[in-house]
Description:
Blueprint: E1 2-3, H1 5-15, E2 22-26, H2 32-42, E3 47-51, H3 57-61, E4 63-67, E5 70-74, H4 77-84, E6 88-92, H5 99-111, E7 113-114, E8 117-118, E9 124-130, H6 146-149, E10 153-157, H7 161-170, H8 175-183, H9 204-215, H10 227-237, H11 239-250, H12 258-261, H13 267-270, H14 275-287, H15 297-309, H16 312-325, H17 331-335, H18 337-350
Parallel strand pairs: 1-10, 2-9, 2-10, 3-6, 6-9
Antiparallel strand pairs: 4-5, 7-8
Helix pairs in contact: 7-8, 8-14, 9-10, 10-11, 14-16, 16-18
Amino acid sequence: MSISFKxxxxxIPHVIRNGWGIMLxxxxxVGKSEVVYQIAKxxxxxxxxxxxxxxxxxxLLGLPSQDGETTSFLxxxxxxxxxxxxxxxxxxxxxxxxxxxxxGLFELTDSxxxxxxxxHPDTLIFAAVNGGEGGDSDYQVATMDPAxxxxxxxxxxxxxxxxxxxxxxxxxxxxxxxxxxxxxxxHLEHKGHFDPPGKIFPSRRSWKRLSDCLNASNIIKLGEENxxxxxxxxxxxxxxxxxxxxxxxxxxxxxxxxxxxxKDNAWDRIKTFELNEHIKLVDRLKLEGYLTRALKQExxxxxxxxxxxxxxxxxxxxxxxxxxxxxxxxxxxYDDKELSIKFVEALEGLQ
Length: 351
């Protein structure tokens, strides 16, 4: 069974207390490393990251030191740091490591020590691998036997689109990409087998990299053909996603943006909206951060006016988005008796 990032973040505080190794399994490019670094940040711990795929057994045991007739092993600096102070010890790509390294990790995950050097009691051990239960066939990785897996607490992750959109808002992902993915969930990443070989497929990581590229340029032009943008996007996310993004941006000048929504001259246009256009507008108010910060009084006035004209299903969605994303914003809703009554009536009408 796979769980979302939201669920994982909810349960992981209860798991890390015992100090045993935690393994994250999921597809490439979904943000496994980001999850580990976020946990470390929340716990105010530094991350010591090692690519297990680049290690040999000597990188675990350390270097030999001769003392008369005996030899001992001096641990490498990164491992000694994890022994002397609390850190998040993160082994990435352990399913691509050589057998000797993976067997060396047996002792670390079992006894929290290697060659007599014991980890600090508050050091946490994490590992990340691609694939997961039934998903290894798409990757050139080693299969882990039951004894190896038994050393880890294993979580198969299946992050939702909403997980990525929420993360993207907080990590400067281009607003046009967020809007595109919000409207086109199927283009966020490829699921299933990767055929034909060599074809470029989109991933959450490649969308972030494309976003960084677009944020550093002025290549986006709304409402017109843009071959340069298509060619750039093709290199990051492949042909199908690049073409869909190009066509999406070509129509954006015609759609109402959140910034335009708060202007007085937008109401005649808003009154002509179909249901799907209202839903898109509400989604973009959330995606572009208007509902995740304190609202100005003039923005509150516009939202009140908008709420009064909405159908029940959109009304409930916007009402919940306002309350869920920034607690103080919800006060104006509860203080307005008419809006509160309409919310109850809308809920009853949807049941």
